[in-house]
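Retry 2 of 3 after timeout on previous attempt. Resubmitting structure tokens to design endpoint.
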């Protein structure tokens, strides 16, 4: 039988508090970590959707006058 080197930890959180805790976590991270996570999620999504990450992704930004 394997012995755990690290104990398992559980934090119970109310669903109403979960979003604010997530937001606070990411706002406290440096920009490079937030960008890295967005890139990782984008890569994971496209790999799941298409089977592979595309070599080129079109820009979808447009400028409008207000």
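Retry 2 succeeded. Sequence:
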């Amino acid at each position: 039988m394997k012995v755990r080197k690290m104990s398992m930890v559980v934090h119970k959180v109310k669903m109403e508090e979960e979003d604010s805790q997530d937001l606070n976590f990411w706002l406290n991270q440096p920009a490079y970590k937030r960008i890295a996570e967005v890139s990782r999620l984008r890569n994971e999504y496209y790999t799941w959707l298409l089977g592979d990450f595309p070599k080129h992704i079109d820009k979808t930004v447009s400028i409008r006058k207000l």
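Attempt log closed. The chain is about 50% helix and 0% strand.
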